[in-house]
Design a protein that fits this description.
Strand order of the largest sheet: 7-6-8-9-10-14-15
Structural class: alpha/beta
Shape: globular
Oligomer: single chain
Number of strands: 15
């Protein structure tokens, strides 16, 4: 499976950087007769409406995506208990993307054409999002994408409830710079998000007096990190910027510790490790390491206390919450608010109603920016503790307006 994922992840990464052939092929494979697909309409005729949940419930990304799926189900349950949406109960229809990008595209088409969903919630990796993007655009159906990503994208049929670059990666770099950690080593999985994120990081570094001393990628799902860790150890870096995804993080941090590297000697700042991954990797490998997100289980506030309690009640008192879970959870509630404001499930009317929609989220108040279909979010840097939780050590002081193309940053003009 890992070999298959690697080849397709690389194709998706190439597509994201400008060569569209790979994803066009995915679209051709999964779309079938596009004229028929484009005519697929959501079924709103009964007392229930279907919503699609599209996550990796198997494969290398299941370590992260199963909990996102659970958070989506929790939001659906809460909305149904409160009377549903426009008087209709929501019926979730789950599809397994199986950590495979063409499979994501196939399942997206099935949700739209066969299940006739009113909206879909899901995907994690940017490779999966890139694979399904043409499917949702062709069918004029809505996808709510819940995970932080590399930015440089905007789709009329995708709402992004996770962070874009200026709400996570840029604040993380600002934080490292302020700490005097200016010599970086970049380690990532070999697909869209890490390669694009690292392109942005290198551009930022050049303009901000920082150095990138090395850059390495491993196939998604890889468990061999001895060579990369040895290169990191000998590079002379102040910090590692980690964009590994999925269970590759388990192998990386175990190798990191085996090589004698610690958070004190050479800190790692990760942008895809949240509480669920901490539990899976083990705190003995992660204590003291840094993360950049918009939400932690420890984020203060009544809305978060309610969310954590509800999630534990549904899935177990030892189950942690995390940023991607929270972003998925709020995406369903934001969609409900858009539909209620529009007074309709019609996609174009829902989009038109989106601007200014707010929600008292576990991370704090969030607001939809209708122009970009992203969300205003507060940036937070956290430190992993011995008990497996992440304690905030810095935040942006309030929600940051989304800027997916980094138009507000002079150094990013050539991106």
């Amino acid at each position: 499976m890992s070999g298959l994922i690697t080849r397709r992840g690389l194709l998706a990464g190439i597509s994201a950087l400008g060569a569209g052939a790979a994803l066009s092929a995915c679209g051709a494979k999964t779309g079938g007769d596009t004229s028929k697909a484009a005519g697929a309409k959501a079924d709103t005729s009964g007392s229930t409406v279907r919503v699609g949940l599209l996550n990796s419930l198997s494969g290398t990304m299941a370590i992260s995506e199963v909990t996102v799926h659970n958070a989506l189900l929790l939001a659906v349950k809460e909305i149904n208990a409160a009377g549903g949406v426009l008087g209709k109960q929501l019926k979730p229809v789950s599809q397994d993307g199986a950590s495979d990008w063409p499979t994501f595209a196939e399942k997206a088409q099935a949700l739209i054409t066969d299940s006739k969903v009113v909206a879909t919630f899901g995907c994690w990796t940017s490779a999966s999002r890139k694979a399904v993007k043409p499917v949702f655009e062709r069918n004029k159906s809505l996808l709510f994408y819940p995970v932080q990503y590399e930015g440089l994208e905007q789709s009329p049929y995708i709402f992004y409830s996770g962070a874009t670059t200026n709400q996570q990666i840029v604040p993380a770099l600002d934080y490292l710079k302020k700490q005097g950690l200016t010599k970086l080593y970049l380690v990532g999985s070999d697909y869209v998000f890490p390669r694009t994120a690292n392109k942005i990081i290198k551009t930022y570094a050049k303009a901000n007096g920082m150095e990138v001393l090395g850059e390495d990628y491993a196939p998604l799902g890889s468990t061999e990190f001895a060579t990369i860790v040895n290169k990191v150890r000998s590079a002379g870096a102040d910090a590692v910027f980690n964009t590994l995804n999925g269970d590759s993080n388990v192998a990386f941090f175990k190798e990191y510790k085996s090589a004698g590297l610690t958070a004190k000697k050479l800190p790692v700042l990760s942008v895809s490790i949240a509480e669920e991954e901490v539990k899976s990797i083990g705190t003995q490998y992660l204590e003291g390491q840094l993360t950049a997100w918009n939400y932690y289980q420890t984020t203060p506030g009544a809305a978060n206390e309610k969310f954590v309690a509800a999630y534990r009640a549904a899935y177990g008192k030892d189950k942690p919450t995390s940023d991607p879970m929270e972003a998925a959870y709020i995406s369903v509630h934001l969609w409900r608010a858009m539909v209620e404001k529009a007074g309709s499930f019609d996609v174009e009317k829902v989009k038109a109603a989106s601007d200014g929609i707010t929600f008292d989220a576990p991370e704090g108040k969030v607001t939809v920016d209708g122009a970009t279909q992203h969300v205003h979010k507060t940036a937070r840097i956290g430190k992993i503790t011995a008990n497996g939780l992440i304690e905030e050590v810095w935040n942006s002081g309030g929600p940051i307006k989304p800027d997916p193309y980094l138009k507000g940053y002079d150094w990013a003009a050539d991106l």
